[in-house]
Each structure stands twice: as C-alpha cells, then as structure tokens.
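Need tokens for this chain, all 208 residues.
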Amino acid sequence: MKNKITYQWGDEHLLIDLGNRSQPRIRILFWAEFILTSGMATIFLLRSFPLTSDIVNLISGLGAATLYILAAYRFLTRMFSKECILLDPGAFTIITSTPFTKAVATYQWDDIGPLHYTGKSSKTDHPLKGNCYDYFGFETQEQLIQNLHHDGNMYFNHKGAPVRFARCVYSWHAEEMVQMMKIYSGPRLRLGPEWKRMMQQAEPDDVY
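Here are the structure tokens for all 208 residues:
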C-alpha cells in the first residue's frame, strides 16, 4: 500500500487522512471481479445485436448496460474509497467517502469511551490449513474474505456500542496516529491499557 497517512493541522481541528488502504491482493480481487463482470456484460451486448425490436435482443442489451454500470460502480467505489478522521474541540468525526457517496459520523467527546486497538479479529483456521489436500486454497480464500469485510483496527464504545474505524491501519501506524491525536486532544482522548504495552514494545532497546 503506497498511501501515506497525512495530518492536516488547523486552528481548531486536526484532520487525519487515511486514504485508501486496501491491500494489493484485495485490489487484485477488485480487478478480477471488474474484468469478470465486464466480460459477462460484453457477452450480453454481443447477444443483443442486431439491435431490433426483438424482445430477447432488447433484454440482452439492457442486461449488458446494467452489468457495465454495476461493474463500474463497485470497482470505483472500492478502489477510490477514502477514510478520514476529524478531531475538533467538541467531537471525534469519522468520514468515509467514495466517488459517489460520503458518510459522516460524529461522536461527542463526552459520549465515547477509551480508544482501543484490536487489529484483525481472530479467525478459526480452516480444517485443511497446512494440509497437503488443500488443493483449492480454502484457507487463503477465507483470509481474503476476512480482509475484504474487515471493519477496522481501532475502536471505541459510543453509548455502549462499539464504533470501529481505521481499516487496515496496523500497529506501527496506529501508534503514530494516537500520538498525534493526544497532542491535539490532550485528556479528551482516553486510551485503553493495550496502548501502553504497544508503545513500550515499539521503543528501541538502549545501547550502552
């Protein structure tokens, strides 16, 4: 992933731009789905010629157009989605956007609990993991599905409900983000106990 996390400091806010952090193999999956769907659309389009009043040709043409639109929408939405975090004196805001949509979720500081880092949720290994009979790579497929539907590596509780964000942001970047957040927000941002352990592990050993 080439996207860097950027920090924009303002007089009354801190904007953290996470960009699109899809893993390369997930992007390959998006490309494969786009090519497959476009190929199916092309088959329907060729079937619709010649463009006459024949109902079968008309349905084939409409089906091709629908598949092209669906393929383009899903591809652009996934490849160009972006996540941002906005901190201001009153709230913690999570912004997710695509070329077609934008979702803004705002949480007041007084209503959110400590910030936690959870990483990837644990997954039960496939029964054929490590087995020479796993010819079709079921374990790898399950890992891809988990990465595809992963909600986020960081979370806090808002009025008793968990709010996950920072998708595919791993510990070394999460530590940097938390340091920047603490500089801006001070005591308003509370941290879970795991952050102390993570920060200590990240510190280099002293050299004498």
